[in-house]
Amino acid sequence: MIFWAFSFIWYKAANVNLSPITIVFLRLLFSVVFLSAFLVITKDLTKIKKKDRKLFVMLAVFEPFLYFIGESFGLTYVSATVCSVLISTIPVFATIGAWILFREKLKIINYAGIILSFIGVLVFLLNKNGELTYNLKGLILLFFAVFSAVGYNLTLSRLVDSYNPVFIVNIQNIIGTILFLPLFLIFDFGAFIHSTLKFEMFLPVIKLAVFASSGAFVLFAYSVKRIGIIKANAFTNCIPIFTALFSFLLLGEKLTIQNMTGMAIVITGLFLSQINGRKKVIDEALILTGKTA
């Protein structure tokens, strides 16, 4: 969870010298190298079944492609703390999506949690006059990322029973790298090769690739095996807290009492929305929900 919380801060650091598309492309590329090496060493490579190929393509289109477009560009307009709070609502929207598609029944406390989370987001984002205090374009892009992640989860629910989570992440990152390559070549490659490249510029991207896109997923998958999906997934609600704390300490971002109150309401709502509200198959669909920036 700490790795995923730091990912928003590392992105902000990378964005000083690199554009969003370049950051995402390089991050995915580095992650593929790291995860592929991990899978080769652990001898955990799997052959994709023919019937699942379309699902893997859909998975990668939702996330990382559409998700990272929304999140990366959104982060250029809002703070890391705001981004982490909005992204933390993904499990709530995924719950709604599961109910619509799978007609899964929820408990009253789950619905109360969903409503409470929305109230928390409003408390976090509105000023004393009831006006939106953050860049509207940034918020729209971030909610685009949230809904992309929901599509990712609903697709993922059809794959988690057949494939290792680390293998799934690696395949989606491979396809994601291919999808981002044309964008990188068209929009960023010229400026990238003509810029003064220094190792310091790539350090935040390497951290994103190794710790957030790769290492965190490996650690999370291991945790799921040890303590179960429900307990492991509950820890993801700590990400906004860690991000706000690290942003305050490292980036100097302001953290007001209103921010902390809104964040506490969001996290409380998230916990309530997850209490015994899913069948096992949907729980597994949320293992890899939108944890990274």
In short:
This protein has 293 residues and is an all-alpha fold. Helices cover 75% and strands 0% of the residues.
Give a description of the structure.
The protein has 293 residues and is mostly helical. Helices cover 75% and strands 0% of the residues. It has helices at 2-14, 20-42, 53-74, 80-87, 90-102, 108-125, 136-156, 165-194, 199-227, 229-234, 239-251, 257-274, 280-285.
In percent, how helical is the residue content? Answer: over 70%
Give the termini separation: 12 Å
Number of helices: 13
Query: How many structural domains are formed by the residues?
Result: 1
**Radius of gyration using CA atoms only:** 18 Å
What's the average pLDDT?
A: 82
| Biggest sheet descriptor | none
* Helix/strand order, N-terminal first: HHHHHHHHHHHHH
* Percent range for β-strand residues: under 5%
Sheet/helix structural class? mainly alpha
Which word captures the global form?
A: globular
Low-confidence stretches: 277-282
Number of strands: 0
Key descriptive features of the protein:
single chain; globular; mainly alpha
Please write out the topology:
Blueprint: H1 2-14, H2 20-42, H3 53-74, H4 80-87, H5 90-102, H6 108-125, H7 136-156, H8 165-194, H9 199-227, H10 229-234, H11 239-251, H12 257-274, H13 280-285
Helix pairs in contact: 1-4, 1-9, 1-11, 2-3, 2-8, 2-9, 3-7, 3-8, 4-11, 5-7, 6-12, 8-9
